[in-house]
Amino acid sequence: MSRSGLGDRLLHGYTWLIIIWLSSPIAVMILFGFNDKQSKSNTSWQGFTLKWYAQLFEISDLTVALRNSLLIAVISTVVTVVIGTMLGLALGRHRFRGKGATNFLVFAAISTPELVMGASLLSLFVSGNVPRATATIIISHVLFSLSFVVVTVRARIVTLDPSLEEAARDLGATAWGTFRQVTLPSIMPGVMAGAMLSFALSIDDYVVTSFVNGSTVTFPLWIVGAVKTGIPAQVNVMGTLIFGIGVLIAVVNAIAVRRRD
């Protein structure tokens, strides 16, 4: 075997090891959603069962926490996508005073540790006498996920051919018509990628949420609070369903992008 062939095999093996390592926590979560556990500890396999899927919403506090997380994630994603798309278009297509500073702030928000962002947002809300509740969580999630949408949309817009929009306007399309029929369909893969990333960041956030939640309990906060008494199997089932829906949306989006291209 040549050195290049051996190197390729080692690289492939290493890649698969990384994939298995990254996927193992998800696999364990899915597996233990079917565990017929008899005690508070859900760390040992005691038999296969589907009863936890039937009893998914049996724990009322957990159900409320999941509902809060989904509501916050949906609202913050919609707001983030609208604002982030407009900002991404501005940064990718136009020149204006302060563009360099705006670009810097976008990437600074991505690199800022969640601990720092959570503490600063808490200080802002306390200084402004803003009561911490669901609204402050939504505002916080919009702020820390906005940069990710801006970056994905901006990356998509800079690769587009401006002559397509110019041709639409030359043919009589209005500015809104050009955006709706030419620009938006072209940048939709970036918009969808940003939306999925924003939703994922929101629904699993713990650090920032713990600073600004007040009395509102989200899914991650509930899980951390339940560690001392034992994580119920319903948590694994809910996590499995969220993961499965996310994978399904990603696959559908990838297929739609391939057909469009």
Automatic annotation (TrEMBL):
Regions that span the bilayer: 12-34, 70-92, 104-127, 133-153, 237-257
Assigned protein family: Belongs to the binding-protein-dependent transport system permease family. CysTW subfamily.
SUPFAM superfamilies per the UniProt record, alphabetical: MetI-like
Signal sequence bounds: none
PANTHER family the record matches: PUTRESCINE TRANSPORT SYSTEM PERMEASE PROTEIN POTI
Subcellular location: Cell membrane
Keywords: Cell membrane, Membrane, Transmembrane, Transmembrane helix, Transport
The keyword Lyase belongs to this UniProt entry's keyword annotation: no
InterPro entries reported in the protein's UniProt record: Bact_Polyamine_Transport, MetI-like, MetI-like_sf
Main location: membrane
This protein's name: ABC transporter permease
Domain ABC transmembrane type-1, residue spans: 66-253
Pfam family, one: BPD_transp_1
